[in-house]
Structure formats: structure tokens, C-alpha cells
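Protein modeling request. Please complete all fields; requests missing the sequence field cannot be processed.
Requester role: graduate student
Desired output: 3D structure, C-alpha cell encoding
Chains: 1
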Amino acid sequence: MAAKVLVVEDDELTRFLMGEMCRALGLDCEIVADGQNCLDRLQAGPVDFDLVLMDLHMPRVSGLEATKAIRNSADYFVKALPVVAVTADTHWHERSQYEPHGFDSVLPKPVEMDALTAIVALYTGQNIGIESPSRTV
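Delivered output (137 residues):
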């Protein structure tokens, strides 16, 4: 069974490209446009996902706010979900920056296929393969 990833991203082009990359890896991917949509989706079915890829800067509810809500959730399955920050902000690429905010790791933008593959394998335990040429988001 394919790992299921929730991609949380406000930029339309990045949503499209991340979805394509996930599908190329054989992942079951669902995409939402902001942190509030993420929280709503997790409330509806938290055990549906193996990993959350969370953009940091979004309208309504930011990635920081959404991740804080995830970590403070009363639902064990929501609270335990691995959440990876996806950002071009280089200061977030240090563990000392992202860990205190509840993120398990960081995936730098532009997202490279090898980095996405490694993150997904690390947090889902699945050996995944590329079905199409490498792309960068």
C-alpha cells in the first residue's frame, strides 16, 4: 500500500509540482491550500496520512500555527504525525530552528526529487521509486 502524504501549500504552481513529484514516487497524495484546510482535513480523518509536508508561509493559518495545533491535538494519531517543514527560508534548515516548533525535519525549497524521496522513506519506512524524470519545485 502506498504511503499517503498530505501536502499543505498555498502557491498553486508549487502545489501542482509537489503533487506531480509525489505521484512520480508512487505516493497517494492529497493537497490542501493552507494550514486551516490541513487542520480541517486531519480532524476529518487523521489516520488517513503517514506524513505532512507543510509550507511555512500561508494565509489564514500559517504552517507554524498549524503544526502547533497538530502537536497540541488531543487526538493521538494527529499529534504523532510526522510534519516536515517545506521552505526556502535558509534559517529554518537548522534543527535548532525547526524542532522547537514541532517539525520533525525540513525539506528545502526548491524541492529536489532525491530530498523528497529521502524524507518520505525516512518517515514512512517505505522504499519508494521514481516513475518519471527528476524535477525540482
